[in-house]
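Why should sequence recovery work at all? Because a backbone constrains its sequence more than one might expect. Tight turns favour small or flexible residues, buried strands favour hydrophobic ones, and helices have their own preferences. The token representation captures these environments compactly. In the example below, the structure is given first.
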């Protein structure tokens, strides 16, 4: 059994889609990023890489590589899962926390869990998605950014 932790944060801007855990959420702003900016999937990818001692998302998916521009974060997850498979590991459990003042995450939670279950090839009962605010503190509290943490356990196949 291995454990990894991941974190990601991106600033918000108008005229961008807001995608969290693979789900497009109707909102007036979206996340600024070289890829689609999905902080949840980025945090999960970092947690998987960390649990396998394979560095981090920036090492494998640098924002200087033109081939990665606007890449869907689902593709990052697909590639990271392939790396895990090559090391003979699979995802056992995922726990993630989204930190955002707005929008409210709860109405999209079940859709996020469903999508993550399919993406990660694990049961919905092994995935937890929760959200909190930053109580008005810092860039997240001002509504300028959204962040996510993820903890992943991996087990040998």
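From this structural description, the recovered sequence reads:
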């Amino acid at each position: 059994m291995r454990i990894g932790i991941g974190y990601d944060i991106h600033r918000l801007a108008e005229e961008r889609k807001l995608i969290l855990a693979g789900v497009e959420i109707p909102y007036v702003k979206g996340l600024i990023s070289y890829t689609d900016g999905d902080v949840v999937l980025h945090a999960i990818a970092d947690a998987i890489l960390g649990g396998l001692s394979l560095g981090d998302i920036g090492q494998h998916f640098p924002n200087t590589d033109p081939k990665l521009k606007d890449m869907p974060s689902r593709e990052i997850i697909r590639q990271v899962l392939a790396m895990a498979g090559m090391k003979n590991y699979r995802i056992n459990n995922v726990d993630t926390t989204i930190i955002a003042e707005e929008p409210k995450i709860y109405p999209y939670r079940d859709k996020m869990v469903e999508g993550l279950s399919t993406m990660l090839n694990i049961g919905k009962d092994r995935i937890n998605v929760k959200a909190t605010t930053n109580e008005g503190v810092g860039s997240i509290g001002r509504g300028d950014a959204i962040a996510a943490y993820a903890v992943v356990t991996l087990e040998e196949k």
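A few observations help interpret the result. The mean pLDDT is 97.
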